[in-house]
Automatic annotation (TrEMBL):
Name this protein carries in UniProt: ATP-binding protein
Pfam families attached to this UniProt entry: ChlI (PF13541), Mg_chelatase (PF01078), Mg_chelatase_C (PF13335)
rRNA-binding in keyword set: no
Gene Ontology molecular function: any one: ATP binding
Alphabetical list of InterPro entries matching this protein: AAA+_ATPase, CHLI-like, Mg_chelat-rel_C, Mg_chelatse_chII-like_cat_dom, P-loop_NTPase, Ribosomal_Su5_D2-typ_SF, Ribsml_uS5_D2-typ_fold_subgr
Species name: Streptomyces glycanivorans
Key words, A-Z: ATP-binding, Nucleotide-binding
Keyword Mitochondrion: no
Residue ranges constituting the AAA+ ATPase domain according to the UniProt record: 234-418
Amino acid sequence: MGFARACSVALVGVEGVVVEVQADLEPGVAAFTLVGLPDKSLVESRDRVRAAVVNSGAEWPQKKLTVGLSPASVPKSGSGFDLAVACAVLGAAERIDPAAIADVVMIGELGLDGGVRPVRGVLPAVLAAAEAGYRHVVVPEQTAGEAALVPGISVLGVRSLRQLIAVLGDEPVPDEPDPGRGRPDTMLAGLMVPGAGLGTGLAVQADGTSHRPDLAEVAGQGRARKALEVAAAGGHHLLLSGPPGAGKTMLAERLTAILPPLSRQESLEVTAVHSVAGILPPGEPLVGTAPYCAPHHSATMQSLVGGGNGLPRPGAVSLAHRGVLFLDEAPEFSVRALDALRQPLESGHVVVARAAGVVRLPARFLMILAANPCPCGRHTLAGAGCECPPSAVRRYQARLSGPLLDRVDLRVEVEPVGRADLMGSGGRGESSAEVAARVREARERAAERLAGTPWTTNSEVPGHELRTRLVAAPGALMAAERDMERGVLTARGLDRVLRVAWTVADLRGADRPDATDVAVALELRTGIQRGVPMRAGAR
C-alpha cells in the first residue's frame, strides 16, 4: 500500500481554500476513484492525469487508486487540480519522493501529452496558499509572473509534467519546446473566457501603445468637467443627465484618465478579480490602472452583480472594482438590475447566494450614470419638438428609483454644446494630465487626514465621523440643514453633501470645508443654482 499527498487551491469566488490532495494505492482490481465533492470538469481529470503520466514516461500504477480532496465539504471545480493529483499518484507509487511534495501547492491543468496548461485564478489561489502558511508553489510557466506577485512565495514555473518529475527527483531537467514559437500559443486559451475579453467593452485596460481619450477633446461642459474632477478626487458616484449628443459618454470614458494609479494592494485586488473572470490580458500579470466597465443596457441582474450556474462568478460591479462602472442609457436597464446595485454602492462588496454556496465579491467602484430626460431625449430642449406625453416622461425618469439616486453624490445637467465651444473659438478645457495632477494631490491630502482609519477616500467616511471628528468650519452647514428641514435632503443625502464638501476643500487645498464648499456640494447634488463659483480646482 502506498500513500502520498500534495496540495492545491479551490476558489470560491475570488477567495481560495487550500485543498489537500491525497492518493492511496491498495492491492486490487485497477480502478481510479475521485472523491471530495468534485464537479464535472474535475471528475474528467482521471482520464487527463492517466494519459499525461503515461506520456511523460512514468508508469501508471495498476492497483486500486483512490484520490481524496480534503476538506470534502468544500465544492471543487475546474481543471487546476490536475497537477496536484498527478504528483500525489506518482508519490503514492514511489516514482517521486512523497516528502518532496507534501507541503508544495500545485496549480495547473494537464494536457494528454503531459504539458502543463495555465488556468484562471492563479493570483488569488497563491494568495490563499500564502495566507495558509505555504511557501512553495508550482504553476504553469505562463502564469509564473502572476504567482510571483505574492511576496514571500517561491514560485516554480513548469511547461510539462516531465519537467516537474525531474525537478522533484533531482534529475536533469529536459528541454521542452516553446509552444508559442512560430505559431499561436493555444495554451493561453485557458486564461480567457470566450465573450468576456477586452473586445467586448466589458473591461478596458490602459495600453501604452494605444490612444487614450483626453479631457481636452471635450468641448465646453465646464460644470460637468468640474463634477468629473470632484468625482475622481473623492470617489463620488455621478449622474449625468441631458439630451443626446451633449457629451455624457465622452466625459465618462475619460474618467479613468484622471484617476490616480492603483496602489500595490489595490492592484492585487483588481488582478485577482480579473484573473478569476478570465479577462486578465496575457503577459500583463499586474493591473496598474483603474479598470473601466461599461455593460450594455440589456445586461441582466446576474451579469451586473454576479451569478451563473453553480458557484457565482464575478459580475460587472466586481470587474469595475477600484475603477469605473459606467451605465450608459441608465433608464433602459431593468429596474431589478439597477436596484440590485444599491447594496454594493453602500458596502463596497456584493454577497451572492446560490444553492451551491454563498460568495462574497469585492465591489468598491465609482459609478457613472448617463440618462436622457425622456424617451426621445429632447424634453429639456426648447423648440426641439419633444412629443413625449408627461406621463411617459415621468415613467422614464422614475426608472431610476429614489433609493438608488439617494446614493449618487453628484447630479449634473449636461447642456448642449454651443457653437463657439464646438468650433474651438470658445477655447478648450484642461487636459487629463492637468486635472489628474490636482486629483492626485487631493487624494494625498485626504489619505493623510484619514491615516490610521480604514478609509482612504472621502466617499468612504461614515456620516458619524463627519459630524463628530471631521467637522466643517463654523456655520458652514446652515444651507444644508435648511435643505434637510425642507425635505430636499435626506439624512443620507446630508452625509453625502458633507463628503463632497470635503473633496471640494481638498481640491482647493483648504484644511476643512467652509460655507462656499458646502454650497458647491449642494449645487452638485441637488442641481439647484446657489450663485457660487464652481471652484473645485481653484488655488
